[in-house]
From TrEMBL:
A Pfam family this chain is assigned to: GT_PLOD
Keywords: Dioxygenase, Oxidoreductase, Signal
SMART domains the record matches: P4Hc (SM00702)
SUPFAM superfamilies: Calponin-homology domain, CH-domain (SSF47576), Nucleotide-diphospho-sugar transferases (SSF53448)
UniProt lineage: Eukaryota, Metazoa, Spiralia, Gnathifera, Rotifera
Cofactor(s) listed in the protein's UniProt record: L-ascorbate
Span of the signal peptide: 1-19
Highest taxon in the source lineage: Eukaryota
GO MF entry, a single one: iron ion binding
Protein name (Swiss-Prot/TrEMBL): Calponin-homology (CH) domain-containing protein
Domain annotation Calponin-homology (CH): ranges: 799-907, 973-1083
A single GO cellular-component term on record: endoplasmic reticulum
Length: 1108
């Protein structure tokens, strides 16, 4: 009984029986600078009503760089100095916390309630998963459960003041740069001291959550519309969140939502805190002085609009200064022009680093910081040339949010590319954060702490008085260096998306070699293209109840393009200056004849045809569907797009005619009555004349049958008068006419029907007679198309050729799981041809996309493939018997020529299975004066001479090595000795010795790489471009492929003699051919080898042999 009373007495002595109140809790921290992290820490304390004290502000930090190394002893010394007044207080509860990387997320009541549950413990330390800073102490720690934290973290602890003070003063001295965590660790691991002060670890993270190594455990659920932190691993809701070590960026991410910064209902709560309202300052002379730093570092489209939007910012110009750096010669004249404009206004000053100053981007950005610091500016506003600030209130809004560094969120329209990163990798590269898409899609709006910003941001001048951001680093880009320097200094980068501030340009494909490059930006920078070139009243035409001017029956008039568009297009055409001259004979047309000629330039001639078709789809088609209901063609097709020039001395009118179109649009590019007199359009059937056409307005009218019209005579002109004209085709009508072309071509030869038995067959099944889309055979006046005469399909040589081609293609492409069933439908888009080229020449990569799906990507793919092949054919003096249009339009005749040429180019063995000759009858159909005329010609696909020549060349290339192996194996030893001496001389520097010419020494590609690297003095970075220890066939293939690429770069077309798969498969003859080529190329005295085999009777030592 006495023992029981003794225990009760002890407990009563240690824990006075009274309720703990919030006043008993004091949060203390150490900070020498008021960084953004510190201010965030203090805000979280104030939000929840904690009593707190900070020690060390304004004093120098002597505790070492604890971000990268051990240190922090100065924190203990600060605590000793300041907690001495509480040393005898047994009721005061002290919670120490780091400050720069910590946030509190619950109330003091919740924290004290959790503290009570730890009794009888009197001091509680946070815990983590890493033993730091001395990993050797790991095994001295007590073991814990699998979902508990084992190791002490000194970034946060709580206990009674008297115990805390006694603990931190238990050692007489600690140096400022000694490690504070090691100090506390040794106390905890000493069982006597641990028991003395009843020290325990917060193993379940009930109070302290250390994020390093545990970020994946964190969830952010909602409670009463407040985001809180939940640890799913320990099933706890921690209060003090510590971004220790590399987890600081994870805390920055969490800080966007926790500690009452975000509400699911109200959104951004911190956006309403500490705001500045400049509009309440009536005297604008007292507004902050802002330096605008404009950087033009690469060719950028729509630079005029960029400068205009800076001029239009809502801010008094006498409180703005302009600093411009232009590093682009193309933009020099325009930048000089706007420099003058800025100087004519009331800006405080204007400074210009021009292209001629030869200042780098990093130097210029650093100079802008220095200028702002020296002039005590209040803000530095950085705006790169890719930024379009569509909202003139951007600067006012950014200032109002009162942050150290803040960027307005800017996006490339319809893309996910923005001016900030949500996260970054350990190596410092971009990585998407979980909330990135929500931010850029405005699902979450507010202020967001992010690790990287660029292109446009506002820097507080007060910050620049104590810190200088850095831009110059040879190893990285200036914007990356800037953000890194800010993060390393403990300051924050924010992005705000409460408003739509503007957008980013895409400068990647801006081609300054074009006459008017912005005209071509409709695909890449559509939003800006519209803003410059689409008439502002055009959009009124899209309104549901819009009315249209109708000067004649079914003829409509509406605005579509701006005056700037008409000026730029006329300027482009005048500088291009290849007007057709109104001649009937027109080589630009397929038939070479124009029935109603004009003095014009086709859009295709200036590379604008695809752009113009897109313009028709986006801006003309929506109006057409409103005006001519019931007609739908998507996308609209225009057979001819051109700009017409009318001049009295050349062509001043156009005779009456029908347009060969479903409907036509004409856009005037000049001003009637100003640039010219007269002119206009008369519709004869309706006796209706339209005079005084309007610049930038579209005249839309039906084409065929109804609207027979003429262009009215022009009397005088001050300059050439120009119009854009389009003829747009009806898809259904095209197919009907095209089918008629095919039928008429056959009928004219009295072959109105073709029985099924006359169709050729191959292993894939029936080879269709006319399996071409009839639309491909639509004929305009003068057009010509060809097709095989039906009986040709029954020609045995044709059948043999088809079978050989199919077998060859399907065998070559089998590893890609590709099966060819139709030459026309499978080959027309270039994808299969590109794969075929890759099979024979693995170093060649012609595919930008995996599989081209859109019409545009198919055409681009085919164009790249054909350009490559035609270059190779030219080198081999092989004829080109096809055009891009013919292949894309699935012309079987041209595709056959192309495939047969490829067999010859790639030296395919299967071509010896082809017939000795192939001569077929071909029907040629041509439209002349509206009538289809046909003729039959004999087309030669294979002839004996070419085949025999190819066979002879192949024998020359193969017979030397084959003869050595087949007829003179006794000579191989001499050849091997010479080659070994050559090889080992090269590989000695790598301490490699090849004992014999055997495939095992070269099968993984490593020795080939070392060999060609030494011969050509290449430097290859180990483990970056190839596999140093290849374990799989694929890795060996990659090594050999790189070796082949290096040989090709050195001018050795090794693909002509060797295939990678043959080497990997262990083909000894292929290895000899490869080494033989290297020997002949790099050995000054190659006669020894040639002499050793020159007496072989069966070998023809012709000078043109590739091996000699």
């Amino acid at each position: 009984m006495i023992g029981q009373w003794f225990v009760l007495f002890l407990v009563g002595f240690l824990y006075p029986i009274y309720a703990i109140s919030n006043d008993d809790l004091l949060v203390v921290s150490v900070a020498t600078n008021e960084t953004d992290g510190y201010l965030r820490f203090i805000r979280s304390l104030n939000v929840y009503g904690y009593n707190h004290e900070t020690y060390g502000l304004g004093q120098p930090w002597k505790g070492g760089n604890i971000q990268f190394t051990a240190g922090g002893g100065q924190k203990i010394n600060f605590l000793r100095e300041n907690l001495v007044r509480y040393k005898d207080d047994t009721t005061k509860i002290i919670l120490f916390s780091d400050s720069y990387d910590v946030m509190f997320t619950q109330t003091p009541e919740n924290l004290l309630e959790k503290f009570e549950k730890f009794k009888p413990a009197r001091v509680i330390f946070g815990a983590e998963d890493f033993c730091w800073p001395d990993q050797n102490l790991e095994y001295e720690y007590p073991f814990v459960e699998s979902n508990e934290k084992r190791f002490l973290n000194s970034g946060g602890f709580i206990g009674y003041a008297s115990d805390i003070y006694e603990m931190i003063t238990s050692k007489e001295t600690i140096k400022d740069d000694e490690d504070d965590q090691l100090f506390y660790t040794k106390i905890f691991l000493d069982k006597n001291l641990r028991d003395k002060w009843s020290i325990v670890l917060d193993k379940k993270a009930d109070i302290f959550m250390n994020l390093n190594g545990a970020v994946d455990e964190i969830e952010l659920p909602l409670r009463n519309d407040e985001v809180y932190v939940h640890n799913s691993w320990t099933d706890s809701d921690p209060i003090v969140i510590h971004g220790n070590g590399p987890a600081k960026r994870s805390l920055n991410y969490l800080s966007n939502y926790i500690a009452r910064t975000w509400s699911s209902n109200a959104g951004c709560l911190q956006c309403k805190e500490n705001v500045i309202d400049l509009t309440k300052i009536d005297d604008q002379a007292q507004w902050p002085l802002v330096y605008i730093a404009a950087f033009i570092e690469y060719p950028t489209p729509f630079l005029e609009e960029y400068f205009e939007k800076i001029l239009n910012l809502t801010y008094p110009k006498n409180r703005l200064a302009i600093f411009i750096h232009n590093q682009v010669e193309y933009h020099k004249n325009l930048t000089d022009k706007y420099m003058s404009t800025f100087k004519e206004n009331e800006y405080k000053f204007v400074k210009y680093l021009s292209y001629d100053d030869d200042t780098t981007e990093g130097e210029a950005r650093q100079q802008a910081i220095t200028e702002c610091q020296e002039d005590n500016c209040d803000y530095l506003f950085v705006i790169d040339s890719v930024v379009q600030l569509d909202n003139p209130d951007t600067l006012l809004k950014l200032i109002s949010l009162n942050r150290t560094i803040l960027a307005p969120m800017l996006m490339r329209p319809e893309k996910t590319w923005s001016n900030f990163w949500g996260d970054y990798t350990e190596e410092g590269y971009y990585r998407r954060s979980p909330d990135y898409l929500d931010i850029i899609n405005y699902n979450k709006t507010g202020l967001f702490n992010v690790p990287h910003i660029s292109n446009c941001y506002l820097i507080n001048g007060t910050f620049l008085k104590k810190f200088t951001p850095q831009y110059i680093d040879p190893s990285t880009d200036p914007d990356v260096k800037f953000s890194q320097s800010i993060r390393d200094a403990g300051f924050f980068l924010y992005v705000n998306n409460e408003l739509t501030y503007g957008h980013l340009m895409d400068p990647d494909n801006f081609n300054t070699s074009l006459i008017i490059p912005e005209l071509y930006e409709i695909f890449t920078n559509f939003l800006d293209w519209k803003a410059r070139y689409i008439h502002p009243d055009y959009y009124k035409s899209l309104e549901p109840n819009a009315t249209f001017q109708q000067p004649c029956l079914d003829v409509f008039w509406f605005p579509v393009v701006t005056k700037r568009f008409t000026e730029d297009l006329v300027d482009l055409m005048e500088k291009f200056n290849r007007w057709s001259g109104s001649a009937h004979n027109d080589g630009r047309l397929a038939g070479g004849y124009e029935n109603v000629p004009t003095d014009d330039i086709h859009m295709a001639q200036v590379g604008l045809n695809d752009h113009w078709l897109y313009f028709l789809k986006e801006f003309i088609q929506p109006i057409q569907q409103k005006l001519y209901t019931g007609y739908f063609s998507d996308p609209p097709k225009a057979a001819l797009n051109f700009v017409v020039r009318y001049m009295p001395e050349y062509q001043y009118k156009l005779r009456p005619h029908h347009d060969a179109s479903t409907y036509t649009i004409n856009i005037a590019l000049n001003d009637a009555g100003k640039d010219y007199e007269g002119g206009g359009c008369r519709f004869l059937r309706y006796n209706c004349t339209i005079a005084g056409t309007r610049r930038g307005w579209t005249l839309m009218h039906p084409g065929r049958l109804t609207h027979f019209h003429e262009d009215i005579e022009m009397s005088t002109t001050t300059e050439s008068s120009s119009f854009i004209s389009n003829t747009l085709k009806r898809r259904q009508q095209k197919r009907q006419e095209a089918s008629k072309v095919l039928q008429e071509g056959i009928s004219s030869l009295h072959l109105s029907s073709i029985p099924n038995e006359q169709q050729a067959t191959h292993e894939g099944g029936i080879y269709p007679l006319f399996n071409i889309d009839p639309e491909s055979y639509l004929l305009e006046e003068g057009d010509e198309r060809s097709m095989l005469e039906p009986n040709s399909y029954n020609n045995p040589n044709f059948k043999q050729t088809i079978n050989v081609l199919f077998n060859w293609l399907n065998t070559s492409l089998s590893k890609n799981s590709i099966i060819i069933r139709s030459f026309e439908n499978d080959l027309y888009d270039g994808y299969i041809l590109a794969k075929l080229i890759e099979y024979y020449q693995p170093h060649v990569r012609l595919l930008l996309d995996d599989i081209p799906l859109s019409e545009e990507s198919k055409k681009k793919t085919l164009e790249r493939v054909l350009n490559y092949l035609e270059t190779r054919f030219s080198q081999q003096n092989l004829p080109v018997q096809w055009t891009f249009e013919q292949v894309y339009n699935r012309d079987l005749i041209c595709i056959l020529h192309l495939l047969l040429a490829c067999m010859q180019l790639f030296n395919v063995n299967a071509r010896y299975d082809l017939p000795k000759n192939l001569l077929l009858k071909v029907i040629v159909v041509k439209k002349i004066n509206g009538i289809l005329q046909t003729r039959i010609v004999n087309e030669c696909f294979i002839d004996d001479y070419e085949r025999e020549l190819a066979s002879e060349m192949s024998r020359k290339q193969g017979d030397l090595i084959d003869t050595l192996f087949d007829l003179a194996p006794d000579r191989l030893a001499g050849v091997e000795k010479i080659l070994l001496n050559f090889i080992n001389n090269q590989l000695n520097r790598y301490n490699i010795h090849v004992k014999q010419i055997d495939i095992e020494y070269f099968q993984d590609g490593l020795n080939l790489l070392y060999l060609i690297s030494n011969l050509e003095n290449y430097f290859i970075i180990l483990n970056k471009y190839y596999h140093k220890k290849p374990l799989t066939r694929e890795q060996s293939h990659a090594n050999i492929q790189l070796a082949f690429q290096l040989m090709n770069q050195a001018g050795i077309e090794i693909d002509q003699y060797c295939r990678i798969n043959d080497l990997i498969s262990g083909n000894q003859r292929t290895l000899y051919r490869l080494l033989f080529q290297l020997y002949l190329r790099y050995n000054k005295d190659s006669n020894n080898l040639l002499k050793s085999i020159s007496s072989l009777a069966s070998v023809r030592m012709d000078a043109d042999s590739p091996f000699l």
